[in-house]
Design a protein that fits this description.
It contains nine helices and three strands, in the order αβββαααααααα. By secondary structure, the chain is of the alpha+beta class. Strands 1-2-3 form a three-stranded antiparallel sheet. Strand 2 and strand 3 form a beta hairpin. The two termini are about 25 Å apart.
Length: about 240
Protein backbone atom coordinates (compact mmCIF):
# COMPACT_ATOMS: atom_id res chain seq x y z
CA UNK A 1 0.00 0.00 0.00
CA UNK A 2 2.79 2.42 0.86
CA UNK A 3 4.62 1.92 -2.46
CA UNK A 4 1.39 2.30 -4.44
CA UNK A 5 0.58 5.50 -2.55
CA UNK A 6 4.08 6.83 -3.26
CA UNK A 7 3.86 6.19 -7.00
CA UNK A 8 0.25 7.24 -7.53
CA UNK A 9 0.55 10.99 -7.03
CA UNK A 10 -1.19 13.12 -9.64
CA UNK A 11 1.89 14.45 -11.41
CA UNK A 12 1.41 16.18 -14.76
CA UNK A 13 4.02 14.83 -17.16
CA UNK A 14 5.14 16.39 -20.43
CA UNK A 15 5.88 14.19 -23.45
CA UNK A 16 8.34 16.77 -24.80
CA UNK A 17 11.92 15.86 -23.79
CA UNK A 18 12.90 19.52 -24.20
CA UNK A 19 10.36 20.50 -21.56
CA UNK A 20 11.54 22.38 -18.48
CA UNK A 21 8.45 21.47 -16.47
CA UNK A 22 8.81 21.84 -12.72
CA UNK A 23 9.04 18.83 -10.45
CA UNK A 24 6.19 17.92 -8.12
CA UNK A 25 6.39 17.28 -4.39
CA UNK A 26 4.00 15.73 -1.91
CA UNK A 27 4.09 14.81 1.79
CA UNK A 28 1.79 12.16 3.24
CA UNK A 29 1.43 9.87 6.26
CA UNK A 30 0.38 6.24 6.38
CA UNK A 31 -0.24 4.04 9.44
CA UNK A 32 2.42 1.48 10.19
CA UNK A 33 1.11 -1.89 11.30
CA UNK A 34 3.56 -3.59 13.66
CA UNK A 35 2.71 -7.03 15.05
CA UNK A 36 2.29 -7.17 18.84
CA UNK A 37 2.67 -3.40 19.11
CA UNK A 38 -0.09 -1.16 20.40
CA UNK A 39 1.71 2.10 19.69
CA UNK A 40 0.14 4.40 17.09
CA UNK A 41 2.94 4.54 14.53
CA UNK A 42 2.91 6.35 11.20
CA UNK A 43 5.36 6.69 8.36
CA UNK A 44 5.76 10.14 6.87
CA UNK A 45 7.13 10.45 3.36
CA UNK A 46 8.43 13.36 1.35
CA UNK A 47 8.05 12.30 -2.30
CA UNK A 48 9.70 14.15 -5.19
CA UNK A 49 8.33 13.39 -8.67
CA UNK A 50 9.96 14.24 -11.99
CA UNK A 51 10.10 12.95 -15.55
CA UNK A 52 12.84 11.30 -17.57
CA UNK A 53 12.62 10.38 -21.24
CA UNK A 54 13.27 7.15 -23.12
CA UNK A 55 12.85 6.58 -26.88
CA UNK A 56 11.69 3.04 -26.09
CA UNK A 57 9.01 4.03 -23.57
CA UNK A 58 5.36 4.71 -24.28
CA UNK A 59 5.06 8.38 -25.18
CA UNK A 60 8.81 8.67 -24.50
CA UNK A 61 7.92 9.26 -20.82
CA UNK A 62 9.51 7.55 -17.80
CA UNK A 63 8.08 8.96 -14.55
CA UNK A 64 10.47 8.76 -11.59
CA UNK A 65 10.18 9.59 -7.92
CA UNK A 66 12.56 9.86 -4.97
CA UNK A 67 11.41 9.66 -1.39
CA UNK A 68 12.60 10.41 2.13
CA UNK A 69 10.72 8.31 4.68
CA UNK A 70 10.74 8.65 8.46
CA UNK A 71 8.73 7.81 11.57
CA UNK A 72 9.22 11.38 12.79
CA UNK A 73 6.69 13.63 11.07
CA UNK A 74 8.28 16.77 12.53
CA UNK A 75 11.60 15.90 10.89
CA UNK A 76 10.15 16.34 7.41
CA UNK A 77 7.95 19.32 8.16
CA UNK A 78 10.74 21.27 9.85
CA UNK A 79 13.21 20.47 7.05
CA UNK A 80 10.83 20.65 4.09
CA UNK A 81 12.58 23.56 2.36
CA UNK A 82 16.00 21.95 2.74
CA UNK A 83 14.72 18.60 1.44
CA UNK A 84 13.10 20.35 -1.51
CA UNK A 85 16.38 22.08 -2.41
CA UNK A 86 18.48 18.93 -2.08
CA UNK A 87 16.13 16.67 -4.04
CA UNK A 88 15.69 19.32 -6.74
CA UNK A 89 19.46 19.39 -7.22
CA UNK A 90 19.53 15.62 -7.63
CA UNK A 91 16.61 15.80 -10.04
CA UNK A 92 18.33 18.50 -12.13
CA UNK A 93 21.44 16.33 -12.37
CA UNK A 94 19.47 13.28 -13.53
CA UNK A 95 17.29 15.25 -15.95
CA UNK A 96 20.24 16.98 -17.61
CA UNK A 97 22.12 13.70 -18.03
CA UNK A 98 18.95 12.08 -19.36
CA UNK A 99 18.45 14.84 -21.91
CA UNK A 100 21.94 14.16 -23.24
CA UNK A 101 21.17 10.45 -23.61
CA UNK A 102 17.93 11.30 -25.39
CA UNK A 103 19.83 13.71 -27.66
CA UNK A 104 22.17 10.86 -28.62
CA UNK A 105 19.17 8.61 -29.27
CA UNK A 106 17.70 11.25 -31.57
CA UNK A 107 21.00 11.44 -33.41
CA UNK A 108 20.85 7.70 -33.95
CA UNK A 109 17.24 7.89 -35.10
CA UNK A 110 18.23 10.59 -37.58
CA UNK A 111 21.03 8.59 -39.24
CA UNK A 112 18.87 5.45 -39.27
CA UNK A 113 16.10 7.34 -41.06
CA UNK A 114 18.54 8.90 -43.52
CA UNK A 115 19.99 5.45 -44.26
CA UNK A 116 16.52 3.98 -44.69
CA UNK A 117 15.59 6.79 -47.07
CA UNK A 118 18.70 6.08 -49.15
CA UNK A 119 17.68 2.41 -49.46
CA UNK A 120 14.19 3.41 -50.46
CA UNK A 121 15.32 5.97 -53.04
CA UNK A 122 17.87 3.53 -54.45
CA UNK A 123 15.12 0.99 -54.96
CA UNK A 124 12.99 3.56 -56.76
CA UNK A 125 15.93 4.67 -58.91
CA UNK A 126 16.42 1.05 -59.92
CA UNK A 127 12.73 0.82 -60.84
CA UNK A 128 12.13 -1.58 -57.95
CA UNK A 129 10.19 0.45 -55.40
CA UNK A 130 8.45 -2.67 -54.14
CA UNK A 131 11.79 -4.25 -53.29
CA UNK A 132 12.86 -1.05 -51.52
CA UNK A 133 9.72 -1.08 -49.41
CA UNK A 134 10.29 -4.73 -48.61
CA UNK A 135 13.81 -4.01 -47.36
CA UNK A 136 12.76 -1.00 -45.32
CA UNK A 137 9.49 -2.18 -43.84
CA UNK A 138 8.20 -5.41 -42.42
CA UNK A 139 6.50 -7.17 -45.31
CA UNK A 140 5.76 -3.81 -46.93
CA UNK A 141 3.45 -3.08 -44.01
CA UNK A 142 4.05 0.66 -44.17
CA UNK A 143 4.13 2.41 -47.56
CA UNK A 144 7.13 4.74 -47.40
CA UNK A 145 7.19 7.94 -49.45
CA UNK A 146 9.59 10.82 -49.97
CA UNK A 147 7.10 13.16 -48.28
CA UNK A 148 6.94 11.00 -45.16
CA UNK A 149 10.71 10.85 -44.91
CA UNK A 150 11.00 14.64 -45.23
CA UNK A 151 8.30 15.22 -42.61
CA UNK A 152 9.83 12.82 -40.08
CA UNK A 153 13.37 14.06 -40.64
CA UNK A 154 12.20 17.65 -40.11
CA UNK A 155 10.49 16.60 -36.88
CA UNK A 156 13.67 15.00 -35.52
CA UNK A 157 15.85 17.98 -36.48
CA UNK A 158 13.40 20.38 -34.81
CA UNK A 159 13.32 18.26 -31.64
CA UNK A 160 17.12 18.16 -31.58
CA UNK A 161 17.25 21.95 -31.78
CA UNK A 162 14.80 22.35 -28.88
CA UNK A 163 16.66 19.79 -26.82
CA UNK A 164 20.04 21.45 -27.40
CA UNK A 165 18.55 24.77 -26.30
CA UNK A 166 17.01 23.21 -23.17
CA UNK A 167 20.32 21.58 -22.21
CA UNK A 168 22.19 24.82 -22.75
CA UNK A 169 19.69 26.67 -20.56
CA UNK A 170 20.18 24.16 -17.76
CA UNK A 171 23.98 24.13 -17.77
CA UNK A 172 24.39 27.90 -18.10
CA UNK A 173 21.86 28.57 -15.35
CA UNK A 174 23.46 26.27 -12.78
CA UNK A 175 27.22 26.37 -12.17
CA UNK A 176 27.17 22.89 -10.62
CA UNK A 177 25.68 21.42 -13.77
CA UNK A 178 27.95 23.52 -15.96
CA UNK A 179 31.02 22.07 -14.24
CA UNK A 180 29.84 18.53 -15.00
CA UNK A 181 28.23 18.90 -18.41
CA UNK A 182 30.94 20.84 -20.19
CA UNK A 183 30.81 21.69 -23.93
CA UNK A 184 33.07 18.70 -24.67
CA UNK A 185 30.74 16.36 -22.79
CA UNK A 186 27.68 17.72 -24.57
CA UNK A 187 29.43 17.37 -27.95
CA UNK A 188 30.11 13.68 -27.26
CA UNK A 189 26.38 13.05 -26.86
CA UNK A 190 25.29 15.23 -29.76
CA UNK A 191 25.80 12.48 -32.32
CA UNK A 192 24.61 8.99 -33.24
CA UNK A 193 25.61 6.21 -30.86
CA UNK A 194 26.08 3.45 -33.44
CA UNK A 195 26.17 2.53 -37.14
CA UNK A 196 23.05 3.25 -39.25
CA UNK A 197 20.39 0.57 -39.46
CA UNK A 198 17.38 0.20 -41.74
CA UNK A 199 14.13 1.04 -39.98
CA UNK A 200 11.04 -1.13 -40.11
CA UNK A 201 8.79 1.90 -39.59
CA UNK A 202 9.06 5.68 -39.77
CA UNK A 203 7.25 5.80 -36.44
CA UNK A 204 8.37 4.39 -33.13
CA UNK A 205 6.80 0.98 -32.54
CA UNK A 206 6.22 0.09 -28.90
CA UNK A 207 7.58 -3.34 -28.05
CA UNK A 208 6.29 -5.01 -24.90
CA UNK A 209 9.09 -7.55 -25.21
CA UNK A 210 11.76 -4.87 -24.95
CA UNK A 211 13.11 -4.42 -21.44
CA UNK A 212 12.99 -0.77 -20.41
CA UNK A 213 16.36 0.74 -19.69
CA UNK A 214 17.52 1.18 -16.12
CA UNK A 215 17.97 4.54 -14.42
CA UNK A 216 21.72 4.14 -14.90
CA UNK A 217 21.27 3.62 -18.64
CA UNK A 218 18.87 6.55 -18.92
CA UNK A 219 21.15 8.97 -17.09
CA UNK A 220 24.65 7.55 -17.65
CA UNK A 221 26.97 10.40 -16.61
CA UNK A 222 24.62 11.71 -13.92
CA UNK A 223 23.66 8.42 -12.28
CA UNK A 224 26.64 7.82 -9.99
CA UNK A 225 26.77 11.47 -8.93
CA UNK A 226 23.06 11.54 -8.16
CA UNK A 227 23.24 8.34 -6.15
CA UNK A 228 26.19 9.69 -4.16
CA UNK A 229 24.21 12.84 -3.44
CA UNK A 230 21.21 10.87 -2.19
CA UNK A 231 23.48 8.83 0.07
CA UNK A 232 24.82 12.12 1.42
CA UNK A 233 21.34 13.56 2.00
CA UNK A 234 20.03 10.67 4.07
CA UNK A 235 22.22 11.10 7.18
CA UNK A 236 21.82 14.90 7.09
CA UNK A 237 18.21 14.61 8.26
CA UNK A 238 18.30 11.29 10.09
CA UNK A 239 19.75 12.45 13.37
Amino acid sequence: GFVVRTLSADYQRSSDPASTADDSQVVFRVPLEVPDKEADLHLTAYVHHFTLYDVHARGYVRPVCMSFVTLDNAKIMSNFTELLIEFTRVSALLKTANQLVFLSDLGQRLVDMQYTRELFLQGEADGDAGSARQRTSTGGREGFSTEKFVSNLDTIVAMQARLRAAIQTRVTGDRRLGAIFTPDVIARYDRANGPPQALTSLHKIASFERKLRSLQELCELGYARALARLVHIQPMYSA
